[in-house]
Amino acid sequence: MSNLEMSSRGSELFSYLPSYYNTSRIMGSMMDTQGGEMELLYAALNETVDQFFVSTATWGLKRWERELGIVTDLTKPIEQRRAVVESKLRGAGSFTGRLVKNVAEAYDGGTVDVTFQPQEWSFTVKFVDTIGIPPNLEDLKAVIEEIKPAHLAVEYEFSYLLIRDIHEVMTLAEMEQTLLQKFAGGVRLDGQRA
């Protein structure tokens, strides 16, 4: 067996052997097998390291959720579960507009503006970049309710596609591919048609 027919790790292992093994099919086969096992080991190690970071965690996300007191919901997409964990990690500390902004942007992935109306004892979270209602809004609402002081009310503002945004800008095919909930009047917050 020549080095060219071996896996890359097998070839690497074979290169450490004395040159008199260059023609040995037995040693070539052994190094190729051991190289394959090393590939599996390195892949397992890399996957394990990924679990230490929220942005790359997969099966380790359950541990993050348990640590932070978040109920694991396997029906949610992994990106949403990561957003909940990330938001919870960002949500530590005193309540400020920056805290709300960081938490909301962790869920949405876009720009969020937070404005306070102190005379009305409330604040507004406005989704700037997101068109329509973010898919995990209910999770975001739950986290904001958890971190905000009880005496403050919160309102949410969304951006929708208006006629001026699509007239002579989008083709009919593009409009047909756009979800109804992204248009003004498409879907209410409770999921019903407006």
UniProtKB/TrEMBL annotation:
Say which domain of life the source belongs to: Bacteria
Which InterPro entries does this chain map to? Answer: Phage_Mu_Gp48 (IPR018755)
Question: Per its record, how is this protein called by name?
Answer: YmfQ family protein
